[in-house]
Amino acid sequence: MSSVQYLKGIGPAKAKLFERLEIFSVADLLHYYPRTYQDRRENAPNAGLNPPSLVVFKGRVLRAQTVPARSVLIFKAFLCDAQNNQIECTWFKRRTFRNFRFDPFAQLKKDFKMNAEIWVIGRRENRNNFFDNKINVEEYYPAADPASAWQAGRITPVYGLTEGLTNKQMRQYMHEALTAAEAEGEPDILPPSLAEKRKFLGSAQALHAVHFPSSLAELENARARLAYEEFLLLATAWGVKRTQKNISAKNYTYQIKKHLLTPFRKNLGFDFTNSQKKVINEIFADLQSPRPMNRLLQGDVGSGKTLVALSAMLLAAENGYQSALMAPTEILAEQHYLTFQKILKKLKVSVAVLTSSTKTPERKKILSALADGSLSVVVGTHALLQDDVEFKNLKLAVIDEQHRFGVRQRGKLKEKTERLDLLTMTATPIPRTLALALYGDLAVSTLTELPPGRRPIATQMADEYRANHIVAEEVQKGRQAYIVYPLIEESENISAKAVSEEFEKLKAVFPKYKLAMLHGQMSRTEKESVMKDFAAHKTDILVATPVIEVGIDVPNATVMVIQNAERFGLASLHQLRGRVGRGEHDSRCILVAQHQGSVARERLKIICDTCDGFKIGERDMQLRGPGEILGTRQSGELEFKAGDLFKDRNILQWAIEDRDELLAADPLLQKPEHAAFKKRLLELYQKNWHLIDLS
């Protein structure tokens, strides 16, 4: 479709405003769905669309007048509807020099003539409104004006806007866009067989209904149709990608030789859980398969994902291959490195850590060892993706906390070698259906058990005084504690400063005990030193930012205090809580909230009531949405406009089932009836995301 600037009433200047909303074409505008709706029908039933203060009124003008005032200009109009209900409408204008030359109410006086029929939308005044009939007007429309048909008397869309655009304008432009689209007769992209199977509205009908629905039922049918289309496109992209990967066989093989794996298991001092054994067998089967592995490993906090991943990396080392583990933060990468170093020391498997903080001499040494193959295992951050990082024989990549890495970043890692087995891990467990949508080209393994000895963590809300008292009690017993402060305005610099200030205060609160501080602005050497001292119990209380959310494992730590807990998502709170309860002693998590609104209380209660990561993950998605939980807003992989991955799970399941049916009948979408769908698929996932190749 054509540029949005050629729509009636827009032009080049307005088009610049639309660009701020990432609207460039008429098609972009049509798929810019309403943020919410208002029910502006006469005598509309209360369907929960309108806030209590909103008034929608259609009546005839009884009288109108200008009211003199000192600092403002006031215009009042009195209206009466067919049931003889009356309202008093008010408009305010500040006195300016321009007001003395031009009447700011000239248009109002023209529209609000005696007996004129007017639609009025406004908010009730909070003061001096004994009869609840005084409103401050936000919008009004003469009933005789044809344009009012898109603004009132119906379920009316409300859009997210930018400065310079109003909802009144947006509705009119959307009406123009729908008219233009109907004139052009754009084909419905949904494959005819699937449209018939699911009995959905046609594309044009659905678009019209989602912007200007005639009823709530029609609105929901339209939204379901558009959600299904989004889900089907993504599911098909994943299906095509999986097919393409299966075409290319690996040019290398794995053999289970056990000269590293057997001593590794013996040196652990404990056995794997049944769940770990099952998942390791699934991964090993993938590695021995002639096709590259692409598997998602999900498991709750403390379920033993790291040891599973290390087992796979040792199998690679047994076969003379290199492996890399990529973590989202330096502190997590360093923690993995320390863990690997400790475990692999007796096995004589070379391991190193590479981050942006790695000093130049050490970096050169690591790069040389990777290039000549003498380094078997490397742990790192995004630094592993840099162009000068070259591997001699990289065959296995492990991505930890995979939702923090986008498609392109995972793709860049694969560019380091011709073929690559990929294992991605997440501690944000999600239902299988959602996993298929989010990571549709991945096989999914789930750790369902916690290792023996892991105790449940008692979680409660408390004030700061009580929290400090509990910390003192535990430390007096010889235990250790974390006190965590949130990031402030997403800035590590500000966060570090805040923690520094709180650290000084806490030293006065706990004068008998040794305190240390940890935040993202510290150097690698400093962070390592702090972590080692805390692990060795040279420190009693660790005051930190959420950099400790993942990674630090100290069995003697039995208390986790989370300050400003309402600022954290449920998944983050659960991750932080998982830093304790790793030893033989009973552990506690204390949530200290500064602002406890109803939503905050509900979220914190969930954490207090359950330690089940799957239940918490589901509830977090329900409250905040999958995009925010899984980082998809940042990565750009998922930008569903109509669909909600949590609420629309049944529609998502249909899309996955129908994707399989579609690709089974036409793997490359070459049939004429699939041309429009293929075109849209390529626009989204080949042109924009380079996820597939159907050219």
Description of the molecule:
The protein is α/β, with parallel strands linked by helices and 695 residues long. Among the domains are: 11-177, Beta Barrel (OB fold (Dihydrolipoamide Acetyltransferase, E2P)); 261-289 and 304-426, 3-Layer(aba) Sandwich (Rossmann fold); 457-610, Rossmann fold. Helix content is 41%, strand content 18%. The protein has a seven-stranded parallel beta sheet with strand order 10-11-9-12-13-8-14, sandwiched between helices. It has a six-stranded parallel beta sheet with strand order 15-20-19-16-18-17, with helices on both faces. Strand 10, helix 13 (360-372) and strand 11 (377-380) form a beta-alpha-beta unit. The longest helix has 32 residues, at 216-247. The protein is globular and about 95 Å long. Residues 629-637 have low confidence and may be disordered.
| Average pLDDT number | 85
* Percent in strands: 15-25%
Oligomer: single chain
Structural class: alpha/beta
Compute the CA-based radius of gyration: 31 Å
* Alpha plus pi helix count: 25
User: Could you say what the CATH architecture of the domain at 11-177 is?
Assistant: Beta Barrel
CATH superfamily of the domain at 11-177: Nucleic acid-binding proteins
CATH class of the domain at 11-177: Mainly Beta
* Large-scale geometry: globular
What's the total count of β strands? 20
CATH topology of the domain at 11-177: OB fold (Dihydrolipoamide Acetyltransferase, E2P)
- What portion of residues is helical? 40-55%
Main β-sheet, spatial strand arrangement: 10-11-9-12-13-8-14
Rounded to the nearest angstrom, the distance between the terminal CA atoms is 22 Å
Q: Uncertain regions: pLDDT < 50 for 5+ in a row?
A: 629-637
The profile of the biggest β sheet is: 7 strands, parallel
